[in-house]
Amino acid sequence: DLNFFGTLKFIHPVVKRMLLRKTKGRVVLVGDSLSPAYAIPGMSPYSISKAAIDQLAYQLKNELECQDIKVHYFLPPPMETPMM
User: Fold this and answer.
1) Rg of the Cα trace of the chain?
2) 3-class SS at 3?
3) Which of 28, 31, 35 is nearest to 10 (CA)?
């Protein structure tokens, strides 16, 4: 819930306000370069939520850039963490 819905609940009011004010701006999302592309045992909820953020980024880019709101989506390289 937190990965996707937390992101969505944060972005929605910010973007809404940007649109009402007719101000240019930027939305930045950080994704995961591995989990949406690979099936990792035991990581289904995490991978699905990251794949949802991936689609959210592409949809926002398509819908907002005509309103002068840029959408940036970063996929950092894999890092060795305890989760891996």
Assistant:
1) 14
2) helix
3) 28
pTM of the model: 0.79
Which helix (H) or strand (E) covers residue 61, if one does?
helix 44-64
Q: How far apart are CA 69 and CA 16, in angstroms?
A: 11
DSSP state of 62: H
Q: How far apart, in Å, are the Cα atoms of 34 and each of 57, 64, 82?
A: 16, 26, 15
CB 69 within 8 A of CB 15: yes
Residues 9-49: pLDDT tens digits? Answer: 999 999 999 999 988 899 999 988 776 667 778 878 888 88
Q: What is the DSSP string of 9-31?
A: HHHHHHHHHHHHHT--EEEEEE-
For 45-61, the pLDDT digits (tens) are 888 888 899 999 999 99
3-state secondary structure of 67: helix
